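tool=predict chain=A
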Amino acid sequence: MTRYVISVGERWLAALYDTQSSGIALTETRTDACSWVTYERAEQAALQLRKIFQDELRIHASEEPDYPRCWDVA
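tool=predict ok
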């Protein structure tokens, strides 16, 4: 299933909470990045990040299995 992840410079967005809590987490590892089902949702998140970061932001398509990662199914 195609999902969308965001890179912030050399890092990846791992979490984005509402603007009230100002929670943003970045990771060095792409596999730890959070993802969105639609490009439009990822774009909305990128617009929020644009207000905070000066780094280049990019949205990437990512192929992921159609089951939760926590299931640890190979």
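The longest helix spans residues 39-50. The chain has a mean pLDDT of 87.
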